[in-house]
């Protein structure tokens, strides 16, 4: 599958991995549709892309709302004529332990709230489900060749304080096998799916944390540094261009595994 002249829809495109991949795919000749909830940031990413002479549009989208996601895919089709590459990068964290007892009394003083649990499930799981489903509907109805790329995480292996987040990422890591099998069972041969499970990636959100915390993170990475966004981009390109990559999750982590269970 060629990137040039393909139409790429990217959720979570206002920052981080989504922004980096959007800018890179546009530079490779893709027509990019940016989606997120922050219109000002989306405009800024679009400006960066168009200033380089490449093509992009954006649409504010709430990935937890199926009408909003359906409208996004229709917007991409109306703007550029098809939907071919979909990256589901939108995600959030709401970290908390299941329960935290008071050190003095031993009684529970706080816990992961239902809201903290549900917010992460809504965005990271339902949001990805809707993004993949609505993209697959468009690709199938119009016979557009396509590839779906959801984002999992190394923390699918388990991280203390991330029961909600890790649950969603473990699910996403499993989806490519199931969805590829479903496509095969229904004779759908023009759509592929492969997930990426990044490690700690060198994005502004991570590099802006306290140096001592960042240094502790890096000390646990066998590679000895954070994963660069360019390395995630090269993995995205590999998935798109290599049609044998289907029904799998590729870990790009510098060798790290979820370490929370060992603490």
How much of the sequence lies in strands comes to 15-25%
Average pLDDT reading = 94
Structural class: alpha/beta
Q: From N to C, what is the helix and strand string?
A: EHEHEHEEEHEHEHHHE
Q: Gap between N and C termini, in Å?
A: 43 Å
Apparent shape: globular
What is the gyration radius calculated from CA atoms?
19 Å
Q: Give the spatial strand order of the biggest sheet.
A: 3-2-1-4-7-8-9
How many E-type strands?
A: 9
Textual characterization of the structure:
Helix 3 (66-80) runs parallel beside helix 4. Strands 3-2-1-4-7-8-9 form a 7-stranded parallel β-sheet, with helices on both faces. Strands 5-6 form a two-stranded antiparallel sheet. Helix 2 (39-51) links the parallel strand 2 and strand 3. The longest helix has 29 residues, at 114-142. It starts with 6 loop residues before the first strand and ends in an 11-residue tail after the last strand. It is built from 8 helices and 9 strands. It is globular and about 65 Å long. The chain is an alpha/beta fold.
């Amino acid at each position: 599958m060629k990137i040039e002249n393909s139409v790429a829809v990217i959720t979570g495109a206002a920052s981080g991995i989504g922004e980096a991949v959007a800018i890179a795919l546009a530079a490779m000749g893709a027509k990019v549709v940016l989606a997120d909830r922050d219109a000002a940031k989306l405009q800024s990413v679009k400006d960066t892309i168009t200033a380089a002479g490449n093509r992009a549009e954006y649409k504010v989208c709430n990935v937890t709302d199926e009408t909003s996601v359906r409208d996004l895919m229709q917007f991409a089709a109306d703007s550029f004529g098809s939907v071919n590459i979909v990256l589901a990068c939108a995600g959030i964290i709401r970290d908390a332990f299941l329960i935290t007892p008071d050190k003095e009394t031993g009684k529970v003083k706080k816990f992961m709230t239902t809201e903290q649990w549900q917010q992460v499930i809504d965005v990271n799981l339902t949001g990805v489900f809707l993004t993949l489903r609505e993209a697959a509907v468009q690709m199938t109805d119009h016979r557009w060749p396509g590839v779906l790329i959801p984002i999992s995480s190394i923390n699918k292996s388990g991280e203390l304080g991330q029961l909600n987040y890790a649950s969603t990422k473990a699910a996403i890591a499993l989806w490519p096998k199931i969805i590829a099998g479903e496509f095969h069972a229904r004779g759908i041969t023009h759509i592929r799916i492969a997930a990426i499970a990044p490690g700690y990636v060198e994005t502004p959100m991570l590099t802006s944390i306290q140096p001592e915390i960042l240094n502790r993170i890096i000390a646990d990475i066998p590679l000895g540094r954070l994963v660069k966004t360019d390395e995630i981009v090269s993995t995205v390109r590999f998935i798109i261009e290599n049609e044998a990559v289907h029904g799998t999750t590729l870990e790009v982590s510098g060798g790290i595994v979820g370490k929370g269970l060992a603490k």
